[in-house]
């Protein structure tokens, strides 16, 4: 049985509110990892926890913004989309933990695998949700909005593929895996350049 427009708006509102709460709690959880230093000098001599917090905040913030765009234009609340959204939220929570583990134990293989896996999963699920919305005939959007969604799906897909593919370099050490992540930057830049050229 297909839900009415009013039902859709109610479900979307509830899902978006719940999603915002989960993401907000994830950001709050990042702050709890920080401990007050014994002195100001400790902040200068041991900046890693604060760098980890800022990096974690930036990544989770970007996920929140993409999630906002997803719900605004490309999300239809059917059973599959709802399940994928809950999987995405669970992955975001795990990503917050994985980021802290990674920055604390950056040279250990397990922390690199956990971080790459969580980040790949978050951006992979985001890419799938955007792609699903683009293919859904029940969602009608202007051409420019559709181009935006397609671009986001591609860029999220690139991050997912790079992060998961980088695990093949694990036999060569944690640093080799981390160097593989740099491949995402030129690929995303090239994708953005191509998108802007086509829309010009």
What's a quick, concise take on this entry?
With 200 residues, the chain is mainly α.
Tags for this model:
globular; 200 residues; 8 helices; mainly alpha
Question: How does this model look, in words?
Answer:
By secondary structure, the chain is mostly helical. The chain has one domain (5-199). It has 8 helices and no strands. The chain has helices spanning 5-32, 40-45, 48-73, 79-104, 109-135, 143-165, 174-181, 184-199. α1 (5-32) packs antiparallel against α3 (48-73), α1 (5-32) runs parallel beside α4 and α4 runs antiparallel to α5 (109-135).
Task: Chart the SSEs and their pairings.
Blueprint: H1 5-32, H2 40-45, H3 48-73, H4 79-104, H5 109-135, H6 143-165, H7 174-181, H8 184-199
Helix pairs in contact: 1-3, 1-4, 3-4, 3-5, 4-5, 5-6, 6-8
């Amino acid at each position: 049985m297909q839900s009415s427009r009013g039902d859709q708006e109610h479900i979307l509102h509830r899902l978006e509110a719940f999603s915002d709460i989960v993401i907000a709690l994830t950001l709050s959880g990042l702050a709890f990892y920080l401990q007050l230093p014994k002195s100001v000098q400790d902040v200068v001599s041991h900046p890693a926890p604060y760098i980890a917090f800022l990096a974690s905040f930036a990544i989770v913030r970007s996920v929140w913004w993409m999630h906002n765009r997803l719900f605004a234009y490309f999300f239809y609340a059917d059973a599959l989309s709802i399940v994928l959204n809950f999987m995405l939220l669970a992955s975001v929570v795990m990503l917050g933990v994985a980021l802290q583990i990674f920055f604390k134990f950056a040279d250990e293989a397990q922390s690199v695998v956990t971080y790459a896996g969580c980040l790949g999963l978050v951006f992979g699920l985001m890419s799938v949700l955007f792609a699903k919305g683009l293919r859904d005939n029940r969602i009608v959007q202007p051409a420019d909005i559709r181009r935006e969604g397609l671009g986001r799906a591609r860029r999220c897909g690139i991050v997912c593929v790079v992060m998961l593919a980088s695990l093949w370099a694990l036999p060569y050490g944690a640093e080799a895996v981390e160097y593989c992540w740099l491949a995402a930057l030129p690929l995303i830049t090239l994708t953005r350049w191509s998108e802007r050229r086509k829309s010009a």
